[in-house]
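User: Please predict the structure of the protein below. I'd like the answer in structure-token form so I can feed it into my own downstream comparison script.

Assistant: Understood. Taking the following sequence of 340 residues as input:
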Amino acid sequence: MEHQDGADACDVCGMVPLVPRLNGATQLVVRSQAMQELLKRAARFAGSDAPIAVLGETGTGKEVIARIIHSNSARAKQPFVAVNVAALPADLLESELFGHSKGAFTGASAAHRGLFETANKGTLFLDEIGEMPLPLQAKLLRGLQDGELRRVGESQAFAVDVRIISATHRDLAQRVREGLFREDLYYRLKVLTLTVPPLRQRVDDILPLALHFLLNEKTSAAGFDAEAQTRLRGYAWPGNVRELQNVVKHGAALAVGDWVTCEELPEDLAGASYGANERTLSGNRTVAAPTALQSLADVERAHVLHVLQACHGDQTEAARVLGIARNTLWRKLRQWSPSI
């Protein structure tokens, strides 16, 4: 596996935890056991060219997982092309995917390369594949079976070498039963399957993700106070990671001190109950409620991360405050969050 930008491979899954984008790479942040298991499975898939179906609720990060797989595959230096199938009308979608010849339809003043051609030798990510119209499903199936496509308005086929990763929040099996999705295409696309758990089922990821998003905002706040942290962990997050990112943007825009407080979070979070395992004390500390005592390891982790936040992410300063060597702090952070 090639390392990108000098980044180290994750100790848990073996992949380089960088998400490549046009404006640079961003780091994947994972703490929960559920996501670590998902990435272990994704790492095994990265070495294959078989189609992958990434399933999960809207906003869980399905495209992020697809990009990670691509960037850790043999196709990493080739294009990663993403298209939201639901965002385009059927006639335009066909042209976008397969291309068209000059004069193929009104307004086609020049030949156009489709996204399959653009992604040749690389990966094509078909988001919301469950919304693809049935006629296009047949053409896609033929392309996947034969590796050959035809542009709109042309009779001559051409070969492409593309790895397909599709994603949907729909129950594709149910769509098949309803006659809205081809059964043969369904089995062709889901040779390999990944199901991304919703954020409410990976609570350990909430605060690390929130801090990661906050550090990318222009704000004086270095973190979230204890009450805000509890509120974030107690919320159900129907919009998942995408909603969390927008909540952090809201808090960063309103923050006036060193910490984002509950008053600076959106009103939607006002009804979030406090976590069952925590109760708030004075200042910025939380302790376990008597019904859910914490282990010494959990207390140590919470304290170290609190000090790191207070030091604005400066590991050298945090190590000085904690009275430990910087390498010791680094090893602890790697143990708790392999993406660091």
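That's the full token string. Confidence is low (pLDDT under 50) at residues 1-6, 273-293.
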